[in-house]
UniProtKB/TrEMBL annotation:
Transmembrane segments: 21-41, 66-85, 97-117, 123-142, 261-284
Protein known as: diacylglycerol O-acyltransferase
One biological process term in Gene Ontology: triglyceride biosynthetic process
The UniProt record lists the keyword NAD: no
Lineage top rank: taxon: Eukaryota
EC number: 2.3.1.20
This protein's UniProt keywords: Acyltransferase, Endoplasmic reticulum, Membrane, Transferase, Transmembrane, Transmembrane helix
Record organism: Adineta ricciae (Rotifer)
Amino acid sequence: MATTVLEKPSLLSSTSGSESYRGFCNLLYVILAIGSFRLVLENILKYGLLVEFNWPLRFIKDPTNWPSVLLIILVNIFILIQFWLEVRLSRCSSRMYSFLFQMINLSSILIFPALYINHCQPNPAGAFIAVCSYSIVFLKLVSYTHVNYRCRQDLFEKKHDGIKQTKDCVVYPQNLTLRNLYYFIFAPTLCYQLNFPRSPCIRKNFICRRSAEILIIFSLQYCLSQQWILPILRTLDRPLNQYSILENIERLLRLALPNHFIWLLLFYAYFHSTLNLLAELLCFGDRLFYRDWWNATDLYEFW
């Protein structure tokens, strides 16, 4: 009687049904680590150690940095104006004019930093941080204004008759306090709520870990930019249009790897370490700051 011999395809064949290639991924990680380490050694041997560790002193002594610090502090003026207008609106006094002033104040948040930077010409890095801060405050105040508007409409339509502030729940207009507003300003969210989800306590070990991550990652980013990117940029001794296409491509490829490292480190340092640190200090409960964008299949899902 003949016996049936089952075929056994190779594991790398499409018919094998094998889907586990973790070992190849580990091998790629090792190759990437070795290649990156070789580039680091080559860079140090070629240019020497270029990292300057006295940047905090240079930041303090550089007069172009202080206008950016002042610009960030001045954002509180717009926050306080918006708060004062919200309080006026809650009392039903000059509603139309107050709403108009709110729109003017929100528009000024976007216009003022541009005019200030154009006039003072501060350090580009500090100016970038200041503009980001103003953009975040603008988005937060838009949400703050919109939510309070909806609550005010509900209140005027008598939808909340008999509802009073309780120990665990804040209702409009009891939320119109500076403490409530500044909690939202510092909270890691752009969407205002009268009652945010809260965590029960502050974990000291968690704060220490996140703080250490922020310090190490930002230091690593600084070293990468000083040691790896600046030497490449310094080789550009003439405009890009005077180089050949192949030379421009070669420089872009040399910048691609450190640029990707810095952006990935920035993502982790800001969206994971910094926002989680803020959330822990403020006992903020909603910590879904990002999704698995690395598994995105299209640009819409990626963003």
